Amino acid sequence: KKLSGAYEKVPATAVEDGNPTNLCQLSWSPSGEFLAVAGSKDVKILERSTLKELEACAGAHEHEVSIVQFSSNGLYLLSVDTSGLIVVWEFGTRESLQRYKNASKVLSAKWDPFSNTVAVISIKGEYGLIDNVVPDTKPGPNDKTEDDDVNSEMGQEDELMQVGGVQWEGEPMLDARGSYAMARREPPQPAFQPQSTPASSKRRFLAYSTVGQITSRDETTYHAVEIEFADINTGRPIRFNDYSGYTMAAMDINGALFASPEVKEKGGAVTRSSINYRPFEAWAPQSDWTMTLDQGEEAEAVAVGTTFVAVATSKRMLRLFSTSGIQLRVVMLQGPVLCMHGVLDQLAVLCHSPTSPGADGSQDVHFQWLNVDSKAMIASGPVCLSPAAKLEWLQLTDHGLLAMMDSAGIVSLYSPGGTAGHWTPVLDINSLEKDKKMHKRDWFWPVAITQDDIIGVLVKEEKRYPDAQMPVMSKFPLSMPLLAGCSTEEEAFVRKTLFTDHQATLVADEDDEAAVDAARVQLEKTLLQQMNVACTQKKLARALDLAKMFSSEKGVIAATTLANRHKLSNLAERIDLYRQTRFREEEEEEIEYEEVEEVSYRQPAANKRRREEVEEVEEEQDSRQQDDDEDDHSGSPSAKSTADTPPAPAPNVGQRRPGTAALFASTKPKPANAAAAPAVKGGFMEKLASIKAAAASASAPAKRQMATFGVGKAAIVKARAKAKR
User: What are the pLDDT digits (tens) for 257-286?
Assistant: First the structure.
């Protein structure tokens, strides 16, 4: 039958005698994983997630293919060229099963959704049916596959429905118009290299940083790779021909790392994925090295540091090498890798979670911040992206911060110490348009970030990446997205506090401490400016809060002086009272801490000296007693001369002279005659008793202090401060 003008409604690439020469149609596989593309003598097959070209359906057409279409189960592919040749392919093996020649050009061809038939309409408006296009020995074009059986057995909560080649999750719902609507689950964001441009360009950046750039130019049979340094004194440009097909690279001041994907050839051969490291300055020959991954494992992200090389693969493995090629470690990742970046001895790895993306399209990404040399985990946690946004840039800065930018234009920083493990937004790229710093059709492609600025390239928004050989670098000041009405000083204080607090966690010597003190002085100057405005506007409560934000006593004193200059005596008194309460208590706690520490260490030494004095007195007493005993038994004249001396009271029978140990240990009352005994040898006993009493009185407080000190210095300071309050 004739259908006049039917072909006129179909778009074409060219028209000859009123007829389209090639329709160049596309067709998605039912699973949504593959895209068949017409336009050449072969049917091109692309992978959806990466748009990487797979093995094509080739060898059957001598003219350009115009029409392609998958069968309903995705097992077969139909193709029609401009001469009218119709070919049925088995998609899994890329083999042609049937060929049919039509007398005229074919305008359209479709699979029958219920039978093994293909419907065809020609350029003349004639249509017909081709039966049994798939041999009976093979499954039909509408038969269920194993994937369909698995999906049909899943529960209602996890049910996946195949509609139009797209996966749909959940139960169908009626919208406001009474039609069925379902939530679409987007695939996760594919892996990418930060600071690189897409592979679709003939000339692209494999890596672009403040150190230098690596460019790759497609020369059909090979790629010309060039490495240039930002500082010409660093080294000369390096050029070489790439026959491995490198698609990703990373570089630092010491060397560059390249990686190629796994490629399946037409004949079934497989070229495995490989990595290649090239040091810029090698002291030994054969310093560059190459590693080939196993078949089925493909490099998806690479990064380099001063002492390591990192490769994340499709098997969710993180492979770490030394710069000389020694395999250091292999770590399993929690999900598909998104991107990586390294600096010095640190590495940041971002991976998708198993549930990424969410129902609203937001990417569920987690990061791991590693110290490769010490084998330590610096930080880990979720990556906070804007709703339904994707990651566009990642960098470990020289200041020890993790920076990123998402597709919504939010630049955020992560500090493991200064911000208690939170992502802090420091710039909204869209604000540059509001401030008329860039055109509304422009976009910012970041390269590096400092404490005050972000450095990058202004590009067109539809591309979002530079395509010029030498892009022009631009620098914009950071500005946190605070609410309207915020002063410049307030924004600067909040933002610089982030960097200063992080810098304080990295203090290693006196120079670092001096740098932190200088940064805090600058912050206090910013506070004084804000406080001056508050005093001028008579906002006393705001001024008092600003005064409490000073970190030093000098700053609080300066705030008191500023309040007096504005003749705000009430405010000045409150600030001074706050200063006395805050800094005096700190001084008292420090003094008490030092006193407790001094007593605890000095008291044992004093007790030791007293014990030594007692021992000397004991020895002197024993020697005198021995001399007296010898005089009594020898009957010398000196013993008879004692007749004129008043006799001493006779001691009790069996009583011995008490020793020094008995003096310190005994608690029984002395005998009555002992109390009346006079001092022997010029008051020697009084001296011994006084030494004993002094030692006993001094040892008890020392023991109590030591017992208290053993509980903890902080407990003493806290308890005394609480008692005083």
Answer: 999 999 887 777 888 999 999 998 888 888
CA distance 268 to 93: 10
What is the pTM assigned to this prediction? 0.57
Mean pLDDT along residues 17-21? 55
Four-point Cα dihedral 603, 607, 613, 615, nearest 10: -160
Beta bridge pairs of residue 224: 217, 241
pLDDT higher than 90, residue 249: yes
Lowest mean pLDDT among 25-34, 176-185, 192-201: 176-185
DSSP string, 479-525: ---PPTT--HHHHHHHHHHHHHHHHHTT--SHHHHHHHHHHHHHHHH
Closest CA to 262 of 58, 48, 53, 37: 53
Q: Report helix, strand or coil for 572.
A: helix
Residue with token string 């994340």: 312
Give me the pLDDT at residue 499, please: 80
- Count of helices and strands (H, E) across the chain: 13, 40
Q: Cis link prior to 11 (omega < 30° from 0)?
A: no
Q: Are 338 and 351 in contact (CB under 8 A)?
A: yes
Strand order, beta sheet including 85-90: 65-70, 76-81, 85-90, 95-101
Give the whole-angstrom CA distance, residue 303 versus residue 256: 9
Give the span between the Cα atoms of 129 and 122, in whole angstroms: 12
* pLDDT at 692 (0 to 100): 60
Query: Which of these, 237, 228, 189, 185, lies nearest to 210 by C-alpha position?
Result: 228
CA dihedral 134, 135, 137, 139 (to 10 degrees): 10
Q: Which two tokens stand for residue 140?
A: 């039909």
Buried b / exposed e across 691-712, counting CB within 10 Å, b at 16+? bbeebeeebeebeebeeebeee
Kind and range of the H or E element at 395?
strand 391-396
Least confident window among 171-180, 193-202, 290-299: 171-180
Contacts (Cβ under 8 Å, ≥6 apart) of 24:
13, 38, 39, 66
Write out the H or E segment, with its range, that includes residue 571: helix 569-579
In which residue are the tokens 């509304």 written?
A: 440
Positive or negative torsion for Cα 489, 492, 498, 499: negative
* Residues in a beta bridge with 460: 442
Longest dimension (CA), the chain: 166
What Cα–Cα distance (Å) separates residue 12 from each residue in 23, 66, 485, 521? 5, 10, 56, 70
